[in-house]
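Lab meeting, item 3. Inverse folding demo.
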């Protein structure tokens, strides 16, 4: 049997060979794109003890496209759609099927995009139950790792694998928010660093450092470990300064990969970054929807509506017709701009925001 990575490569090739077929034919999506991946993950679609297609839901609610079974009971309910149908529009039905059958997880898939949800989380909206979202083409490097969280052979530790993945992603998201405010890191670390005595205390007992010297050294070390340096004119004031700098002051321009772009408002950071991606052949309608790093908010959509059908709080239509959510403070909007760059294979640090002094 082919390995998971070999199967994913074949599925990508198959999908690219006849995209129109998979945009209109759900059966082809299931047979050609989904079934091979399930089989590579240990869910043999030819064995009824592994997978039951067109599974009848209790209370005559309908039929789920797949039920993935363990010991005769569904653990994952999978809804498959062709690639012209929005997966978000199927979320409520998919979660209801999983809840009715007592399955812990719901999987939405169109052969290209795979999304795993918890079927029920107390006091949560459906979109907030997302565990991971994966595009087999755009996320090729991590596709195998993510999909392995639902391998059948690991079913005894199924919850452990998925929860472990969710925790790692949450920590990564927290880290991205953390490093987005490098000035705060330096301000917090410098006084602590200054309080430490040198290992060779006797040799350096006569050497004294000002807090400014410590901040400069710490900033340099932080930069060496992958955190973007503070820009000239944004030096952090000494600890105890009664007027600490705002998270992101009003700015004049952004620089993306060396290209300067004028801005007037804080939301322009995200808008101009999105338009820059569009100009470079990225961020197309087929990429929609795009969720925030936490998976709790949809930030790019093909239409100005949430999963529940409500209008976006603060939406802007981009030049190619898709919509972008601009709700959030300055730090959040900048973090989302960098997340979009990263999603499309760019180093997020190519975005530099230059603010008024």
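The presenter then showed the designed sequence:
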């Amino acid at each position: 049997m082919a390995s998971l990575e070999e199967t994913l490569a074949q599925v990508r090739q198959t999908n690219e060979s006849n995209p129109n077929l998979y945009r209109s034919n759900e059966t082809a999506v299931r047979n050609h794109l989904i079934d091979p991946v399930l089989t590579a993950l240990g869910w043999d679609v030819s064995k009824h003890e592994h997978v039951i297609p067109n599974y009848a839901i209790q209370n005559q609610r309908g039929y789920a496209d797949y039920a993935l079974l363990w010991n005769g009971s569904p653990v994952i309910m999978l809804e498959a759609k062709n690639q012209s149908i929005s997966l978000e529009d199927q979320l409520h039905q998919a979660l209801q099927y999983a809840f009715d059958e007592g399955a812990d997880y719901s999987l939405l898939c169109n052969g290209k995009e795979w999304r795993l949800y918890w079927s029920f989380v107390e006091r949560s909206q459906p979109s907030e139950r997302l565990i991971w979202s994966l595009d087999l083409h755009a996320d090729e490097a991590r596709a195998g790792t993510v999909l392995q969280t639902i391998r059948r052979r690991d079913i005894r530790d199924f919850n452990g694998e998925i929860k472990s993945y969710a925790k790692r992603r949450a920590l990564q998201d927290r880290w991205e928010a953390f490093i987005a405010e490098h000035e705060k890191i330096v301000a917090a670390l410098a006084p602590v660093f200054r309080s430490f005595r040198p290992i060779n205390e006797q040799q350096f007992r006569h050497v004294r450092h000002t807090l400014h010297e410590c901040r400069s050294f710490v900033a340099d070390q932080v930069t060496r470990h992958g955190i973007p340096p503070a820009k000239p004119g944004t030096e952090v004031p000494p600890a105890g300064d009664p007027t600490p700098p705002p998270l992101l002051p009003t700015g004049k321009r952004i620089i993306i990969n060396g290209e300067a772009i004028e801005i007037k408002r804080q939301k322009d950071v995200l808008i101009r970054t999105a338009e820059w991606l569009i100009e470079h052949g990225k961020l197309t309608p087929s990429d929609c929807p795009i969720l925030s790093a936490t998976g709790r908010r949809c930030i790019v959509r093909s239409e100005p509506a949430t999963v529940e059908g409500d209008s976006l709080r603060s939406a802007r239509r981009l030049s190619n017709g898709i919509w972008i959510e601009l709700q959030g403070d300055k730090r959040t909007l900048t973090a989302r701009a960098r997340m979009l760059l990263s999603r499309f294979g760019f180093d997020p640090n190519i975005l530099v925001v230059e603010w008024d002094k």
